[in-house]
Each structure stands twice: as structure tokens, then as C-alpha cells.
Specification:
The chain is an alpha/beta fold. It contains 10 helices and 12 strands. The structure holds NADP nicotinamide-adenine-dinucleotide phosphate. NADP nicotinamide-adenine-dinucleotide phosphate binds next to helix 1, helix 4 and strand 4.
Length: 279
């Protein structure tokens, strides 16, 4: 297939290339080549390339930055996604779009299904929801893939930050009252690779299996990496950040399983492989 990948310099973009390059003809775009906030450029570019499918991993992903730069957040994560959907409609190709657990408000107490009640509490979450809505308005053939707590080789992420802090801290405070599922971009990219072989359009939750708090995740990272760091649990309100985060956002991968796909491996197995790779 001829696959156009946006955000190809990003963390997920990197692993999408790793996973898809061998079997497919990839057209890789960055904001320099095709700025998704530029409607004319985006439509012209996609009409020119005529891909069989577009995978959108481009986004403004600085969750705290979004609180300050509202306009940019909505422009990239909302309107930009709408532009991609319009372009896909022009060439009649499906769009795979990556969304987030931050479209939920965190009040759930058990894993959230795809049709769970939406209610973003941050500008990032609200802007990502705008993107989801635009796609559903414009296209019939789409895969909206909500994922969570990503880490990968190519980008800044929680495990890397923890390992950096461990270099010169013997004690680290980490939030314990936010629970989710850390997800390895390599596993997510493999999942997307399977999904695009089908026409099972719709909304998917796709994460590694299991769940933990940031605090439990940090402890596990130090255990695997053999770092002797004392992790001190704190509440999210003690650890002030500009953007509020959902306190519980475990995503039940219901649609994924019902369509016959294999659950992604446990987050503990995935992070173990990742840590062994980077240290
Ligand atoms: N990171 C997480 O924990 C997380 C969790 C849940 C969901 N997600 C979603 O997963 C997807 C991938 O996340 P990621 O962490 O891999 O993101 P990332 O590393 O921040 O990469 C996003 C890429 O988007 C590109 N981009 C930004 N503005 C653009 C524009 N106007 N036009 C075209 N490209 C633009 C940037 O590339 P340039 O160099 O081209 O500017 C950047 O490389 C995103 O949709 C994100 O919302 C992420």
C-alpha cells in the first residue's frame, strides 16, 4: 500500500516507519513538507500523492503547553485534523488518526470502553476531541485510535525522564493518584499495521495491557534498570502542573478484541524490553 504518514519525525512516527517500511511504500511528511494547519497545502499534497491510506501521527502534544497556547492546540489538533479528513475525502482514502485517553475526565472507576462518556478536562484533551469530531463529520472510512501514556525510542517521555533523574537523585517524588496504561510506541505501531490491513473502520482503544499509577510505573522502571532510587508518592495536586490530567484513564481495548485482534502485551513486558534497549 502507498501510506502517507504525518508527524514522521515524532515518537510514534519513528516506530510507524520501523514497522511499515518493509511491506509498504511510505510517503513521510513533516510540518515543513505539509503543515496540516494549511488547508490548501494539505489538500494539494494529498491529492498529488494519492495515497491508499493516511496515518496521522502529527499533533501538538505538549499537554501543559496547550494550556497557554490554546489557539495553536485547536489549530493543529482540531482544524489540522479536519483538513486531513477533507483531503482524504477528496482522494477517497481512509484516515487513521491517533487520539488520546485525555478525551475522558478521569471519573471512571473501571476500564473505559470506546463509547464511554467523553469529557476532556484540559485544552489538549478538548483540542484532540475536536479532531475526532471533525473526522466523524467528514469521513466514513476512518480509524480513530485512542491510546495513552506513550513512550518510544525517538522522543521525550516518562521512562527517559525517570532514568535521567536517577543519575543524580536518590529520591524522586511521583504522582500516585493518576492511573493509566503505559504504552510502547513500537507495540502501538504494530497494532496500527494490523488495523490498516482491514476495513473495520471505527473508534478503537489501543494500549498495552494492564494498568498502574505513575508512581508504580516509576518504581518498576527503577527495578528493571537496577537503580536504587526512593520513590516518594505524591498526589497530583501536590505536584502542580499547568494542565489537569484524568485521575483514571485506563482504556478497555474492547473493539480491538471484539474484531479478533490479539491484545497488546502487558505493559511490564513492553517497558522491560524498552529499558533493556536504551540502557
Ligand atoms: N505522547 C503521548 O503520551 C500520547 C498519548 C496519547 C496519545 N498521543 C497521540 O499520539 C500521537 C503521536 O504522539 P507522539 O508522542 O509521537 O507525538 P510527537 O513526538 O510530539 O510528534 C508529533 C509530530 O507532529 C508534528 N507536527 C506538529 N505540528 C504539525 C503541523 N502543524 N503539521 C504537520 N506536522 C506537525 C511534529 O513534527 P514536525 O517536526 O514535522 O514539526 C512532531 O514530530 C499524537 O496524535 C498524540 O496526540 C500521544
Amino acid at each position: 500500500m502507498k501510506i502517507l504518514i504525518t508527524g514522521s519525525n515524532g515518537m510514534l512516527g519513528h516506530d510507524l516507519i520501523n514497522v511499515l517500511d518493509e511491506r509498504h511504500d511510505l510517503i513521510l511528511t513533516t510540518s515543513k513538507i505539509m503543515d496540516i494547519t494549511n488547508k490548501k497545502q494539505t489538500i494539494e499534497y494529498i491529492c498529488n500523492v494519492k495515497p491508499d491510506i493516511v496515518i496521522n501521527s502529527a499533533a501538538y502534544t505538549d499537554v501543559d503547553g496547550c494550556e497557554e497556547k490554546h489557539e495553536l492546540a485547536y489549530r493543529v489538533n482540531g482544524e489540522g485534523v479536519g483538513n486531513l479528513a477533507l483531503a482524504c475525502r477528496e482522494v477517497d482514502c481512509p484516515l487513521v488518526h491517533i487520539s488520546t485517553d485525555y478525551v475522558f475526565d478521569g471519573s471512571a472507576t473501571e476500564p473505559i470502553q470506546e463509547d464511554g462518556e467523553i469529557g476532556p478536562i484540559s485544552i489538549y484533551g478538548k483540542s484532540k476531541l475536536k479532531g475526532e469530531e471533525a473526522i466523524q463529520e467528514i469521513l466514513d472510512k476512518y480509524f480513530i485510535v485512542r491510546t495513552a501514556w506513550l513512550y518510544g525510542i525517538n522522543g521525550r517521555n516518562f521512562p527517559k525522564t525517570m532514568l535521567e533523574l536517577a543519575e543524580n537523585h536518590s529520591e524522586i517524588t511521583v504522582v500516585y493518584d493518576e492511573v493509566g496504561t503505559p504504552t510502547y510506541t513500537l507495540d502501538l505501531a504494530r497494532g496500527i499495521g494490523e488495523l490498516i490491513e482491514t476495513d473495520y473502520y471505527g473508534i478503537y482503544h489501543l494500549t498495552n495491557s494492564g494498568s498502574c499509577s505513575w508512581c508504580e510505573f516509576a518504581k518498576y522502571i527503577f527495578e528493571i534498570a537496577g537503580k536504587d532510587v526512593n520513590v516518594i508518592p505524591v498526589t497530583a495536586s501536590e505536584f502542580a502542573r499547568p494542565a489537569p490530567r484524568p485521575s483514571y484513564s485506563v482504556l478497555e481495548n474492547k473493539n480491538w478484541i471484539e474484531k479478533g485482534f490479539k491484545p497488546l502485551r502487558d505493559y511490564k513486558d513492553a517497558i522491560k524490553e524498552y529499558i533493556e534497549l536504551i540502557i
